[in-house]
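Lecture notes, continued. The same structure-token format from the folding unit now serves as the input rather than the output. Read the line below as a description of shape only.
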């Protein structure tokens, strides 16, 4: 069985392949790069779940194969769960995580440590033709 993982991030692909190998699950994972997928998908959902489903369904509709996709990001309680679903676009797609993290720390300047709670959220959706 082949499943397309709706990402071009080779680190994510490697992690999923390692997990499946560890569990002895015989599934071939293909990246968007592997299938030559270059379409831009508008992840306009308001939740991680919605964006993962939008991505999985859009790719599945175009390629006609099973697709797994994710959406993930950082929710910082003091910042009303921002950057949240906009984590990847926070300060721009091409901005390094070093710069993004420095900006977040600047935004939290003066906030007591006990109020600096946050979580990394990841939602995965699967779509079938």
């Amino acid at each position: 069985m082949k499943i397309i993982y709706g990402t071009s991030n080779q680190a994510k692909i490697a992690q999923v392949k390692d997990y499946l190998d560890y569990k002895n699950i015989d599934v071939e994972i293909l990246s968007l790069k592997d299938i030559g997928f270059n379409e831009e998908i508008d992840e306009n959902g308001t939740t991680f779940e919605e964006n993962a489903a939008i991505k999985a369904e859009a790719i599945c509709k175009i390629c006609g194969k099973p697709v797994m996709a994710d959406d993930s990001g950082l929710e910082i309680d003091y910042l009303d769960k921002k950057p949240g679903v906009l984590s990847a676009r926070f300060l721009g797609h091409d901005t390094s995580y070093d710069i993004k993290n420095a900006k977040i720390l600047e935004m939290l300047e003066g906030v007591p440590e006990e109020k600096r709670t946050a979580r990394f959220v990841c939602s995965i959706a699967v779509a079938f033709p």
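Point for the exam: The radius of gyration is 17 Å.
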